[in-house]
Amino acid sequence: MASLAALTLADARFPGGGHVHSGGVEEAAARGLITGVPDLGSFLSGRLRTTGLVGAAFAAAAVVAAARPDAGWAVLDGELDARTPAAAQRDASRAQGRAALRAARLSWPSPVLDALCAVTPRPHHALLVGAVVGIDGGSPAEAARCLAYLAVSGPASAAVRLLGLDPLAVNAAIVALRPALDAVVAQAAQAAALSPDRLPAPGAPVLDLMAQAHVHHHREQVRLFVS
Amino acid sequence: MSADHGHGHGHSLDPTVTEPDPHVPQAPSGRAVRIGIGGPVGSGKTALVAALARTLGSRLRLGVVTNDIYTTEDADFLRRAGVLTPDRIEAVQTGCCPHTAIRDDITANLDAVELLEERFGDLDLVLVESGGDNLTAVFSRGLIDRQIFVVDVAGGDKVPRKGGPGVTTADLLVINKVDLAPYVGADLEVMTSDAHRMRGELPVIAQSLVTDPAASDVTEWVLAQLAAVRVPAA
Ligand SMILES: Nc1nc2c(ncn2[C@@H]2O[C@H](COP(=O)(O)OP(=O)(O)O)[C@@H](O)[C@H]2O)c(=O)[nH]1
Ligand SMILES: [Mg+2]
């Protein structure tokens, strides 16, 4: 049976603070780098294979960790920090993790969440998702799919709001990513039980730089999204 | 933020529940009372926040969360208004969806309120200004204890009649800018009587921040809410 937690966390109506994050789309749109659905499609494809893969792998690893007596959250937390070079992105990930934690504590109360919070009151989003899916009895692949999907669905929704793109066409662009999504999920699930330092670490320097630029611009002019 | 059922309704929709829930929502001891201020763009929400800060800022420990598209002009405006230093104002980004941030997914606002509470220790009152939105936008009861909906005379005297959850269910409806009524051909009588008809027993205040910069009636209402919502110190 599919994990209800994974479905809930991937639902745009889940009250976990996701709608205020554009995953770099606001900055890219402001620079004229995304103007239509084709640009968005390639942006999402790149994001899925980089940030998306890292998040999916750590979500999968968190499912494995959640089942252990000593989850080792601190090591996972540190390894994910190390794979997220932009401070703005670390901050965005923790803001979303903390927001989702509020809802998670009410819906899936568990000593596993307590232990994660004891290590960090602002957990990375991927670790929070993996912990919750694990608590709910879901598999590493389900957590990975949830995270990988969110890595593209959140930015896609932001693009619809910022650029007035056709939501039907944007939805089709997400679905067209299916082969890449499946590959990311498979790779993440395979890596789930590895020691944290062996988890995938692809980089996306342009996304890192744009995340920093977004925060910088936010101090000078109006921005509608946190990231 | 409790998961309790049937707040304030006296009956529950859950057939397995036999007793009505006697509890009305109460602020847990120690946390600030939270009042939401919603309403359409330009109706005077920020001006009301400034007026309340001016009249209450020296008597109460106050914090403000703003969901409006927040520019340095807004911050400057509130700073010029007197008692509000910038560190007492937290801005929330709403991802182009102001109503989502105050109703469907309140986490960013809860974070902002808690940040203010952590920064200043005990606060008495936190005002949460929503982004300007339409007549259907109301605050979640999980975010605020009471809410004010601000409409203005210049928006047309038909607004109260249109209803919507903001006009019909807010704890206080403010009809602002009554000084402008003669210039925009708005019939104040019609506005207030429509408002009362739509709202039943719920209060309506007509005001002008030009003729009454202290927002005296609203201030009085806010103080009454503080007395009513506050849990006696443990
Ligand atoms: N004439 C008049 N103008 C007002 C009144 N209250 C606010 N305003 C003005 O209306 C404009 C919009 O007010 P603001 O508080 O920014 O609206 P918000 O978008 O709801 O926050 C500003 O220029 C205010 O000075 C009022 O009672 N009378
Ligand atoms: Mg305003």
From TrEMBL, chain A:
The keyword Disulfide bond does not apply. The keyword Amino-acid biosynthesis does not apply. Pfam families: UreF (PF01730). Keywords: Chaperone, Nickel insertion. PANTHER family: UREASE ACCESSORY PROTEIN F (PTHR33620). This is Urease accessory protein UreF.
UniProtKB/TrEMBL annotation, chain B:
GTP binds at G39, P40, V41, G42, S43, G44, K45, T46. Residues 35-205 form the CobW/HypB/UreG nucleotide-binding domain. It is found in: Cytoplasm. Gene3D superfamilies: P-loop containing nucleotide triphosphate hydrolases. Residues 1-30 are annotated as: Disordered. InterPro entries: CobW/HypB/UreG_nucleotide-bd, P-loop_NTPase, UreG. SUPFAM superfamilies: P-loop containing nucleoside triphosphate hydrolases. Keywords: Chaperone, Cytoplasm, GTP-binding, Nickel insertion, Nucleotide-binding. Homodimer. UreD, UreF and UreG form a complex that acts as a GTP-hydrolysis-dependent molecular chaperone, activating the urease apoprotein by helping to assemble the nickel containing metallocenter of UreC. The UreE protein probably delivers the nickel. Facilitates the functional incorporation of the urease nickel metallocenter. This process requires GTP hydrolysis, probably effectuated by UreG. NCBIfam families: ureG. Belongs to the SIMIBI class G3E GTPase family. UreG subfamily. This is Urease accessory protein UreG. It comes from Pseudonocardia xinjiangensis. The gene is ureG.
